[in-house]
Write a structure and sequence with these properties.
With 475 residues, this protein is α+β, with helices and mostly antiparallel strands. 35% of the residues lie in helices and 18% in strands. The protein contains 15 helices and 18 strands. Strands 10-11-17-16-15-12-13-14-18 form a 9-stranded mixed sheet, with helices on both faces. Strands 1-9-8-7-4-5-6 form a 7-stranded mixed sheet, sandwiched between helices. Strands 2-3 form a two-stranded antiparallel sheet. The protein is globular.
């Protein structure tokens, strides 16, 4: 009987110890499994900077329910929308985030004027595809359709219901909510090159802009790839009525008299040529210019010309993080700065860096013929190439979607504008030049993060591509 009681007490003690271990494990495990954080950088009171791959913050993707590093760009957008009391104007190439669409609808239904402009190819409600329609799509279009289906299919059963469309299809939410919306066919054309803007103005004061489309791919990550954390993007929130007025002028040109009105919207080259605007914000100077600019105008008057003029001012360093880089004039300017002793570094998205028209090849002192075995006209590989050109290693499925330059750790070039002829002469784009060391420090950290394990210089991939093209072209 005595041994039985001892065994009972021993069992109780063991059970208690086990429960204690489990409890401690439950409470301490998150401390060890939670991703480590970098120290946050100070934010300028008028210009806040956010990156969806930031290592200084953590959030949970609201659609895939994945805890991950990064600033929650959608939460920043939603907070700005919720703050609106008088007006919201949105010009964003693509919107598929349901929470953003619902927030815009709710503000409109609360009596706040909301106006939205998107690119025409994304102004459509999701529909199932038959075999013929699927066959007419290229691989990229099919992946976009599939990604949207996975987003809308809330219960993951492979079937899209009307209720899911009403709650998860952003364009359907906006149109059924009677939110005024138009695209770049509102001028009576089949669309401009691209309505590529990515900005919002709230209450004529708060501006949100950057490189991010308001999509799962642009903000959080792809459903099709679990490792995806979204294309690497920046979002800025700027408090400036003067800057807001400059962007509102661009918006009003595109809006005309709105949906179902006259075909008086102006997109692309129909818009008048405007010189850069300079805006003073406490602690900052901001220069703004819009594309496109006609090829009949001097290149120096274009946005790419403005980029080149700004790079000329560099005294010590130029750091580039670009989705596309294909403008020869900017490459020539960078070559001059490199020759003068300025340290130049460049990161370009993996899908573009070794294309025949990529200026990254010029910087590396080489050239690759295209599929017709032709070299780019007026191509000028650098006589003194640099090894500090490459492409970052990002999570599977993600792209380097940035469009920024950092000059002397003081000046930032940022916007929707890719460094290409299409952006310069065809698309509706915005570009900002911000002179502010506090803002620049955020881009310094982002560039350093991207370059830390990047593939730089004359990589094996580049050598293999050159060999393949030479074999194909018989050179």
């Amino acid at each position: 009987m005595h041994l039985t009681r001892q065994h009972g007490r021993l069992g109780a003690l063991l059970l208690g110890a086990l429960l204690l271990v489990l409890a401690v494990h439950h409470w301490l495990l998150p401390l060890f499994t939670r991703p480590s954080l970098a120290s946050p950088l100070p934010q300028d009171p008028y210009i806040q900077v956010y990156f969806n791959h930031s290592q200084a913050s953590i959030y949970t993707d609201p659609y895939r329910h994945i805890q991950r590093h990064g600033d929650d760009l959608e939460a920043v957008i939603l907070e700005a929308i919720a703050s609106a009391t008088t007006s919201i104007d949105v010009a964003v190439q693509e919107i598929n985030l349901p929470e953003v669409a619902l927030a815009l609808r709710d503000r409109a239904q609360a009596g706040i004027p909301v106006r939205i402009i998107v690119e025409n190819q994304y102004n459509r409600v999701w529909q199932p595809l038959n075999e013929f329609q699927s066959g007419q799509m290229d691989e990229y279009q099919q992946s976009k359709h599939s990604e949207k289906q996975l987003l809308i299919d809330a219960n993951g059963n492979g079937k899209i219901t009307a209720e899911e469309l009403d709650q998860r299809d952003a364009i359907r939410i906006l149109t059924r909510g009677n939110v005024p919306l138009l695209d770049d066919t509102a001028d009576g054309s089949k669309g401009s090159g691209l309505m590529h803007h990515k900005f919002m103005v709230v209450d004529g004061r708060t501006v949100l802009l950057g490189s991010a489309n308001w999509t799962t791919s642009g903000v959080h990550g792809d459903f099709a790839t679990e490792a995806s954390r979204g294309n690497a993007n920046a979002l800025l929130q700027i408090n400036s009525p003067e800057l807001a007025a400059v962007l509102e002028e661009e918006f009003d040109l595109m809006w005309g008299d709105g949906p179902k009105g006259k075909e008086d919207s102006l997109f692309g080259l129909q818009k008048p040529l405007r010189s850069p605007s300079v805006v003073s914000i406490p602690g900052s100077q901001v220069t703004v210019q819009f594309s496109p600019v006609s090829e009949t105008q001097p290149w120096s008057k274009s946005v790419n010309g403005l980029i080149s003029q700004t790079l000329t001012q560099a005294a010590s360093s130029i750091d580039l993080a670009l989705f596309v880089f294909s403008d020869q004039g900017i490459s020539d300017r960078l070559a001059q700065k490199s020759q003068s002793g300025v340290t130049v570094q460049a990161l370009v998205d993996r899908s573009f860096i070794y294309r025949s028209y990529s200026e990254a090849l010029d910087m590396l002192g080489t050239a690759i013929p295209d599929h017709r075995c032709k070299y780019e006209a007026h191509n000028r590989p650098w006589a003194n190439p640099i090894p500090s050109v490459g492409t970052p290693n990002l999570p599977e499925g993600d792209k380097l979607h940035h469009k920024f330059a950092l000059i002397d750790n003081h000046t930032v070039i940022i916007g929707s504008h890719n460094w290409s002829a299409a952006a310069n002469h065809t698309n509706d784009e915005d570009l900002l030049i911000i002179r502010n060391p506090t803002v620049a420090a955020h881009f310094r950290r982002e560039f350093d993060r991207l370059s830390e394990d990047a593939d730089m210089g004359f990589t094996k991939d580049l050598q293999n591509k050159i060999q393949r093209q030479r074999k194909q072209c018989g050179t």
